[in-house]
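Example 3.2
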Amino acid sequence: MKNLFSKSSRKKNWIIISTSFVVFAATLGILFYEGTKETVALTLDGKEKTIKTHAKNVQEIFDDLGISLRSEDYVFPSGSTKVSDNLKVVWKPAKQVQMVVDNEKKTIWTTADTVAEALKEQNIALNDYDEVDPKPEKAIKSNMNISIHKAFQLTLNNGGKKEKVWTTSTTVADFLAQQGITLKPLDRVEPTLDTTVKGNAVVNVVRIEKVTDVVEEPISFAVVTKKDASLLKGKEKVISSGQKGLVSKEFEVILENGKEVSRKLISEKKVKEKQDKVVAVGTKVMARQVSRGMETGVEYYVSSTAYTANCNGCSGHTATGINLHQNPDIKVIAVDPRVIPLGTKVYVEGYGYAIAADTGTAIKGNKIDVFFASKADAYRWGRKTVKIKILK
């Protein structure tokens, strides 16, 4: 019995020793395996972690982590870099972004942190007037839409005031709204509000006003003549002085940029009636001795007509022998010698200095006939009362 118990005890101790050895060997193997791993500091999409790895290069690290790399991703150092202890690896995954530049759409992959950095990657330079949505400082997100409107310059003429301005507008209406310009009902815009605007265009805002203008204008008076038998012929006397009237006129005036372009009369009203001037004209003829004739230096009113050297029955020579054909520029009047002796020098109003050198069968009393070289001048003179002065 004692022998059997001893054998069983030895067998059990052997099993325990064998098991302990295996456990020890396994533990030693594990410790050795873990001890041979390299320590790597990872920064994965902004998050930091430290791992121990047996990966031979950076690419194997990502393979072990189940991370698929894109060619657009940022990886530092490169995937072929050999892993060493305390290696630092940075991975920034690329994000897909929709970018629209002045209606031109394209899809890009970027590792930029902000919109501004993404634009810089695409070599898109901005000026102070360009519009970007979202704002340049916004963080990039996957499937983000970035809209860029490039500003351009055009000329704005607002009511006559010109200036160069930058805009990202597409139509004239958008542009005016962007500039804070309000249109009044009568204002006109050139080109029309729905016109697409382009660089170097000119937008005219014509400010139109409709105003009322009241103007007072004088009314001219007429000169009324009345025959007066108590006055000598050729004399005049003012019976009543004329006075101008006054009319008030109301106009509708259209102004464009402050300048008048049209005026329409809408009403008028007499403020003051005019008073015509009344003049008495003498008709009394003073009896004269025919032999005496008109006195030298005295002015008289006579009835006048005109004639030429080419009239029917005319000889072309005056009663005193002057050849009118040879002297077309001479100043000659035909007279009644009983009133104005031949050879008398006179001054005829509207004709000039002349000589009484001719007669005529129709020239009787206070009547003269004025000589002209052309029929046209004679017709223009016609028949009228003129004032003459006897010189000598």
